[in-house]
Specification:
Serine Threonine Protein Phosphatase 5, Tetratricopeptide repeat
Length: 476
């Protein structure tokens, strides 16, 4: 109903030949001068046109059809009323009437787009019923004629594109979309949007991505296409593709907060904090009070080793953000980078206290180790040893413990603490590496090499022992 009403309401008055009718078209006796007869017919046709619209408005389809047929009687050469009748008959299921009226309209005016569309739909119905390729070719021909006759009619282009794509001729549909996009008066994005939506609905996401990637639409007109492309890449889990689409979008909409933040976050996920910096700074500039944007920028700064700037951003966040474990960890890293080791150690301790259950069991050992390192850098060996207490001993933990003891009590106390780990012959490769590291600093390379050779020679599998020992030394 809505389709018919829209079609009839768009009936061009000039196509009906309606002109202003002079009040004196008839004489005093009511007779019409033969010279004025065409004017009278046009006036009557216009009256019928208004009545057909009124009939449609109340759902009187028969009445609307009757008026259109009477308009045709009044103006047998007119194409547009026949096209409107064809559309009405198609909508009401009278296919014979639709075909006859549409052909008559095209015969009178080959550029009558509405009639071409009706003929295309009729041919398409026949093709679907019998799979006669000639009818498909016929349907495509009518749509092509419609786009040639009225290039500015977006609907004709979209009908043609959809038909080609629906029968698997995507490459041809893409070429038609490109032609439509280059046509003056057409929104360049619309043909591609129609094609891509059809492909996505059919589960052909990769083909849709290809179509959008190859589109030559540029400038502001490309915005909706780039948005679709970014969404499709995201649905496919292709961060690199999404980043490329978002970058092109950002060049067109650099004052868009959400876009700036999305681009920055995508680059962070790709491991590119330097690339994330500019869009995230833009996002913070656009919304200085947005805590999520500030936090994203802090992550980028920490990723670049610029902890001092990140600390200032995190310090400005609401308390509810600062106490979140990921933010507490980020804040500790920022303090480490800024050389504020006391603050880093305190924040790592607060983070440990905030954890519970399985997360604490998983994360506490590594966090305590980092806390001990921070306390040691801050010159607080007692606090470092306190952080290490309770940790399962291994060469890395023992190395940090020995360093703390040496800082607090001197080298002799550190050597005494390490001695029990060296009683075996040879000692475990990790503890041997720790002893060699210390000896190298004290006695030099020659003495260290002799001791290393002695331990390697005493090992059951010398090459494996030497490899393990070298691995620990390289890690330190």
């Amino acid at each position: 109903m809505r389709t018919i009403r829209l079609a009839l309401s768009s009936l061009p008055l000039l196509a009906l030949g309606v002109v202003a009718t002079p009040a004196g078209a008839a004489d005093a006796t009511g007779r019409v001068d033969p010279v004025d007869a065409p004017v009278a017919r046009r006036a009557a046709a216009y009256e019928m046109f208004l009545e057909s619209r009124a009939a449609m408005a109340i759902g009187n389809l028969d009445g609307a059809r009757d008026r259109l047929e009477r308009i045709i009687e009044l103006d047998p050469a007119a194409a547009t009323p026949r096209a409107q009748l064809a559309r009405l008959c198609l909508e009401t299921g009278d296919l014979k009437c639709a075909a006859s009226a549409a052909r008559a309209a095209v015969d009178r005016d080959p550029t009558e787009v509405s009639a071409r569309k009706v003929l295309a739909q009729l041919s398409l119905r026949a093709w679907r019923a019998g799979r006669d390729e000639a009818r498909l070719t016929e349907a495509l021909g009518h749509l092509e004629a419609a786009t040639d006759a009225r290039p500015e009619d977006t609907g004709s282009w979209i009908s043609r594109i959809r038909l080609l794509a629906s029968i698997g001729r995507v490459a041809e549909a893409e070429k038609v979309a490109a032609r439509a996009a280059a046509t003056p008066g057409i929104d360049p994005a619309m043909p591609y949007i129609a094609l891509v939506r059809l492909l996505v609905a059919g589960g052909k996401r990769d083909e849709a991505i290809g179509v959008l990637s190859r589109s030559e639409v540029r400038g502001r007109a490309a915005v909706p296409l780039l948005e679709m492309l970014a969404d499709l890449y995201n649905a496919r889990g292709d961060l690199a593709g999404q980043e490329r689409a978002l970058t092109r979008l950002f060049e067109l909409r650099s004052a868009d907060f959400s876009l700036a933040r999305q681009l920055g976050r995508t680059r962070l996920e790709l491991g590119d904090p330097f690339g994330a910096l500019a869009p995230l700074r833009t996002a913070v500039h656009l919304r200085p009070t947005d805590p999520d944007a500030s936090l994203d920028l802090a992550r980028a700064l920490v990723g670049l080793g610029r902890g001092a700037g990140a600390e200032a951003l995190i310090a400005s966040l609401p308390r509810a953000y600062q106490v979140r474990p990921p933010v507490m960890h980020l804040w500790a890293r920022a303090a480490e980078q800024a050389g504020r080791d006391d603050a880093a150690a305190e924040r790592l301790g607060a983070l440990i206290d905030s954890l519970d259950g399985e997360r604490r069991n998983d994360l506490e050992p590594s966090l305590r180790f980092r806390q001990a390192e921070a306390w040691l850098r801050a010159g607080r060996p007692d606090r470092a040893l306190e952080a290490l207490s309770g940790l399962e001993s291994d060469p890395a933990v023992e190395r940090l413990r020995i360093r703390a003891i040496e800082l607090r009590d001197g080298r002799s106390a550190a050597d005494e603490a390490l001695a029990p780990r060296l009683r075996d012959e040879p000692p475990a490769a990790g503890y041997a590496a720790l002893a060699l590291e210390r000896e190298l600093a004290l006695a030099g390379a020659k003495a260290t090499l002799r001791r290393a050779a002695a331990w390697i020679g005493a090992a059951a599998r010398p090459s494996r022992y030497a490899t393990e020992m070298a691995g620990w030394l390289a890690a330190w």
